[in-house]
Design goal:
Number of domains of chain A: 1
Mean pLDDT of chain B: 92
CATH architecture of chain A: Roll
Number of strands of chain A: 3
InterPro entries (chain A): PaaB, PaaB_sf
CATH superfamily of chain A: Phenylacetic acid degradation B
Shape of chain A: flat
Structural class of chain A: alpha+beta
CATH topology of chain A: Ubiquitin-like (UB roll)
Strand content of chain A: 15-25%
Helix content of chain B: 55-70%
Number of helices of chain A: 2
Low-confidence stretches of chain B: 1-7
Helix content of chain A: 10-25%
Order of helices and strands of chain A: EEHEH
Largest interface: A-B, 17 and 15 residues
CATH superfamily of chain B: Ferritin, core subunit, four-helix bundle
Strand order of the largest sheet of chain A: 2-1-3
CATH class of chain B: Mainly Alpha
Radius of gyration of chain B: 18 Å
Number of strands of chain B: 0
Mean pLDDT of chain A: 81
Number of helices of chain B: 12
Protein name (chain A): 1,2-phenylacetyl-CoA epoxidase subunit B
CATH architecture of chain B: Up-down Bundle
Number of domains of chain B: 1
Oligomer: heterodimer
Pfam family, one (chain A): PaaB
Distance between the termini of chain B: 14 Å
Strand content of chain B: under 5%
CATH topology of chain B: Ferritin
Shape of chain B: globular
């Protein structure tokens, strides 16, 4: 990571922010921000995303540390479940007398 | 109920503890000092909006300014109960000699390092002050202090983080941080000066003596400076500003700032939007 200010036009690295709204819930991606380092990223996230009691916990992750699925390969990548209804348990009939299913 | 009343109810931390409580003349003068410190610093930080080095920092400084504005509103509201004046009367319709803020708070923003140096000294002082004031025998001041101390704790952390990064960053950022400390340090002394008013209030347990807060302030600054490899100015670069803000004597910076802050309210008295 380079030092901010080394070049006039240089931007701070990008961080992805995850906030957990309440105990028991999982962290949810809320957005991204720029910060010079991880400590400042957590603080900036607090200012940007939790000023109105939105969260009890924050994670920040360097954006370039995230490996994403290829958006162009969307068809092949997510195709398989479609048209394979047998993967879903919708064809089973419920036995009589079973409650709360 | 108007929007302003909703906002007020939320911000007036002291109102529940001191509903209908009228400040004595001494307490009102003390609340005015604290309220003016917060108001002037809030206005200064507001000037950064859209000018900060990065969008994220713009928001951080704006948020800190808004916290301080909240403190100013509760403190000025309480100060006004002694004389039947509203927070707006006190903020917008007093002239420079009637302001009671210490000189540190009215020093100009300068570059980012100067703002951070001012934030470091101001928030470290305010953190110790509100911590001590939380056990005030005056329930309204105590309630305001409890709420404010948590917020000022974050302001202090923000300033410390930036002090470390500027001092330990590039040659240029370090040069600017050192200069900012040299320029800002002279205004620290006034924060911890005792006078007859605070001595009377301290005797009643209403307020801490400013001088009693100094050791804790010095300990925090020493720890931060040690890590940042900064030094408290000595020798040729060291001097102490005469101060006098508590008596209404101010540096040349306060007047223009107040003019900008007050012009709209004075041009359209009683206006609301």
């Amino acid at each position: 990571m380079s030092t901010p200010g080394e070049m006039g036009t240089e931007a701070w690295p990008l961080w992805e922010v995850f906030v957990r709204a309440n105990r028991g819930l999982s962290h949810v991606h809320v957005g991204s921000l720029h910060a010079p380092d991880a400590d400042m990223a957590v603080r900036n996230a607090r200012d940007l995303y939790t000023r109105r009691n939105e969260g009890v916990s924050i994670w920040v992750v360097p954006a370039d540390a995230i490996t994403t699925s290829d958006p162009d390969a969307k068809g092949a990548f997510f195709e398989s479940p479609a048209g394979k209804n047998y993967r879903h348990a919708v064809y089973y009939t419920k036995s009589e007398g079973v409650k709360h299913l | 109920m108007s929007v302003d009343q909703v906002a007020l109810a939320e911000e007036l931390a002291g109102s529940s503890a001191g509903a209908g409580h009228v400040a004595s003349a001494d307490v009102a003068e003390y609340a005015l000092r604290l309220g003016d410190d917060a108001l002037v610093l809030a206005q200064q930080l507001g000037m950064w909006i859209s000018y900060a080095p990065e969008l994220e920092e713009d928001i951080a400084l704006g948020n800190i300014g808004l916290d301080l504005l909240g403190h100013a509103r509760t403190l000025l509201h309480y100060a006004g109960t002694a004389t039947g004046r509203s927070e707006d009367d006190l903020a917008y319709f007093r002239d420079e000699p009637e302001f009671r803020n210490a000189w540190l708070f009215e020093q100009p923003n300068g570059d980012f390092a100067h703002t951070i140096a001012r934030q470091l000294f101001a928030s470290t002082y305010l953190y110790e002050l509100y911590g001590a004031l939380s056990s005030s025998t005056d329930p309204t001041l105590a309630a305001i202090a409890v709420k404010s101390d948590k917020e000022v704790d974050y302001h202090r952390d923000h300033a410390i983080q930036w002090t470390l990064r500027l001092a330990g960053g590039t040659e240029e950022s370090r040069r600017r941080m050192i200069l900012a400390v040299v320029d800002t340090w002279p205004y620290v002394e006034e924060l911890f000066a005792d006078d007859a008013l605070v001595e009377r209030l301290a005797a009643e347990g209403v307020a801490p003596l400013p001088s009693s807060l100094r050791p804790a302030f010095d300990a925090v600054i020493a720890r931060v400076f040690a890590e940042a490899e900064l030094e408290i100015p000595t020798g040729r670069t060291a001097f102490t500003a005469s101060g006098g803000g508590r008596e209404g004597r101010h540096t040349e910076h306060l007047g223009p700032m107040l003019a900008e802050m007050q012009v709209l309210a004075r041009a359209h008295p009683g206006a609301s939007w």
